[in-house]
Amino acid sequence: MISDTHDNVPAIRELVKRLKEERVEFVVHAGDIIAPFSMKELKALGVKIYFAFGNNDGERRLLTKIAEDNGWEIGDIVTFGDGLGVVYHGTDPRIVEVLKNSKYELIVLGHTHEATIERLGDKYVVNPGEVCGYLTGNRTYAIYDDGDVSIVQF
Hints:
Oligomer: single chain
Number of helices: 4
CATH class: Alpha Beta
CATH topology: Purple Acid Phosphatase, chain A, domain 2
């Protein structure tokens, strides 16, 4: 799980290298991709990617075309992993509450740039933080493996 790449190409390239080492099955991006060229950098992962639009994603038509051309999913709120989870960039408390009360085991949020993991019974609410490192000074992502979630700093 990743979020807030904000066109930081060196950080995205380092992330791709790390995620290839992790051998991930798919990637969930919780928004603020920003420009189409940043999205294209993620193609090197060679896996399906699920993107939620962020508040700074202005080129939605072109981002959607790139996603569709690569067999990826993109939208304001996107489900992933055959019903495992849902990703949403925003922080609207009404939407977050609906997602928390949904059937999904993994709720992935973005926007705040703060890496957090909240356990709600049999669910996780995860913000993977920021790939770009611009606001917190930390470049982070989250891994979901065998029912556990962890934050990784790189």
